[in-house]
Amino acid sequence: MKMTKKAITLGLGLVVMGSASFAQSITDAKKAIDAEQYAKATSMLKTLVASQKGKGENYFSLGDVYLRRDYIDSARAAFTQGVAADAKNPLNYIGLGQADLVSNNAASAKTNFDKAIEVASKKDFTPYLYIGKAYLVGDKPDFAAALPNLQKAEELDDKDKEAETFVALGDYYSLQRKNSEALQNYMRALSIDPALYRSTVQIGKMYKESRAFSDAEGELKNVVAADPNYGPAYRELAELYMQWGNQEPANFDAKAAEALTNYKKYLDLTDKSYDSRLRYATFLFYAKDFKTLEQETSELASLNQNDPKSLIVSRLRGYSAFENGNFPQSLQYMKEFFAKVKDTSRIISDDYMYLGKALMKDSTDAANDSLGLVNVIKAVSMDSTKVEALAAIAKSYYDAKNYKKAIATYDVVNHLNPEGKGSLYNYFYHAIASYVSYYKAYTAKTNPSKDILVKGDASLAKLLKLAPSTYDAILYRARINDFMDDEVAPTGLKLPFYQQYLDSVGAHVDKQTPAVKKNMVEAYNQIAGFASFKDDKEKAKLYWDKSLAIDPANAVALEGIKSLTAPAPKATTAKPKKK
User: Fold this and answer.
1) Contact (Cβ atoms closer than 8 angstroms) between residue 199 and residue 184
2) Does the reported pTM lie above 0.85?
3) CA dist 162 to 14, 34, 72, 139, Å?
């Protein structure tokens, strides 16, 4: 969980470029779109729509910008006006169809796409190109619907005049991680138009996603060298360095610094609109520059307060305030965020995670701790990659000796993360919390249920299956099984584990630290004590002698040896002391 940038930015979308050029001004507007200068493009296109009311391409391009900025209603309005102004132009029907796809209305989208094909010339490849591209947009591209349209566009463009057809085919394959086919099509696009920098940027992005970071860097720097003002190349460089840093934790700070430098260049080359600043704020979160993020979101909060994407600002304010230790502010912002959300599908796992953690830091209401845990568990249930955060909470309960909450939290952690990162520690601390919790209740004579011991023992069994040489886990299985045994007529449940512990550490003399030797004495004494209980004096003496060989003054062993010759009743097994 894992948390994606797409989730945080609430669908800012992909670039959908036009191909035909009716006038230099529409060409300039498309260049602004390609350079991700959305506010500039919007202004230019509004002027074009006002001055050239009968040209459908103007409306389509304006609607296209709105779609990428996630203004679906504004996009529909532009496309609808375009249909009214130029009913024979297929593009605006396609725009309406794409808006339908974004709204999860595939049937209506198909109707609009069919209408676009109907009004277009039979030899016109552009409707098929744009329909194919529309199916590639969104969280769940419809590859099956996209490919026939893109292939039809390529077939009709028999002289390969339109490079965008091959860019779209490259995107089709790249989105499916079919890198060889994607590269082939991006290269074909560049052979038609070497200045089509988006193809090279996509190649760099593809290398980045394959973790060929040096190759990606080379491709993107080639674009910057060819056109230092092409903003998307700097954005992809920033993304590259960020991912590179995450893959090389030792170099994270240096790579993150490079990432931020390039992202600032990208921001300077765009229009510094609300949208571009919002993308920058999102990037700051991934770069872990929480101080700057808190400042940036504070400024953004005073702008466009009625914009639907102001939700992202509230979200990031909550995130950054928490990371900067401003817990009351974080809780306030996260509550504001949840109060604003109308579409719950927009809520991501991190929202519940930060709300939960902020609640748990709030000491003004004791109930907030439990409520916070509920939200953290909800976050982990949505994204199991975040289970480490829940494990950290469980460990904080353990460290605070709140064993009841530690056990309950580790129950969830171990269910969601049975063999992942940190699972060995999670099983171990769950078992120790169970053991100590039972021990305390037992000594307090509150008649605790042995069910807690069964769970603890099960955790140690899972741990030892994954890591058989974990000596402390073997030792605690012995201690737990001692308590699990019948007090009146014990069967020696502990014995195999104490013996296993002795065999394991005995094979590694170099690892017999003072602490390990102390545990060995415990094991010898426990085995000897049970042997004495069963009247096996020979075995009892053997193991008490081993105990005394390590600790000649050990009182338990000395008393045990003495009892073997005394006319006393059979010795009873002593419960282990808490370690």
Assistant:
1) no
2) no
3) 19, 16, 28, 27
Q: In whole angstroms, what is the distance from residue 413 CA to residue 405 CA?
A: 12
Handedness of CA 79, 81, 84, 88 (dihedral sign): negative
Q: At what angle do helices 56-68 and 72-85 cross, to 10 degrees?
A: 170
| CA–CA–CA angle 62, 204, 219 (5° rounding) | 110
Kindly report which listed range (29-38, 271-280, 414-423) carries the lowest average pLDDT score: 271-280
Cα–Cα distances (Å) from 519 to 162, 438, 497, in that order, read 77, 20, 12
Q: For residue range 18-73, what is the model confidence (pLDDT) as tens digits?
A: 333 344 589 999 999 998 888 889 999 999 999 998 999 999 999 999 999 888 99
Give me the amino acid identity at 24. Answer: Q
- Joined together, the tokens standing for residue 401 give 């000796």
Tell me which residue of 5, 11, 100 sits closest to 343, measured CA to CA.
11
What is the token pair recorded at 391? 């494990």
Retrieve residue 315's tokens.
Answer: 């979200």
CA atoms within 13 A on the CB side of 314: 23
How many angstroms from the chain centroid is the CA of residue 213? 21
Q: Secondary structure of the chain: what % helix, strand, coil (to 5)?
A: 75, 0, 25
pLDDT band at 569 (very low <50, low <70, confident <90, very high): low
> Are residues 452 and 438 in contact, defined by beta-carbon separation less than 8 angstroms?
yes
Q: Is the dihedral of CA 12, 14, 15, 18 positive or negative?
A: negative
Six-digit token pair at 396? 């904080």
Reported as a single tens digit per residue, the pLDDT across 502-547 is 999 998 888 899 999 999 999 999 999 999 999 999 999 999 999 9
pLDDT attached to residue 211: 92
As a whole number of angstroms, the distance between CA 163 and CA 532 comes to 89
Q: Structure tokens of 53?
A: 């009311």
**Dihedrals phi, psi of 106, to nearest 5 degrees:** -65, -35
**C-beta neighbour count of 2 within 10 angstroms:** 9
3-state secondary structure of 37: coil
Interatomic CA distance for residues 545 and 533, integer angstroms: 17
φ, ψ (nearest 5 deg) of residue 575 = -70, 145
Residue 304 CA to residue 320 CA, distance in Å, equals: 20
Token pair for 381: 């249930």
For the chain, what is the radius of gyration of the CA atoms?
33
For residue 131, give every residue at least 6 positions away whose Cβ sits within 8 Å of its Cβ, in sequence order, or none: 94, 97, 113, 116, 117, 149
The amino acid at 475: L
Q: Are 403 and 433 in contact (CB under 8 A)?
A: yes
- Region for residue 160 given its phi and psi (left: phi exceeds 0; alpha: psi -120 to 50; beta: otherwise): left
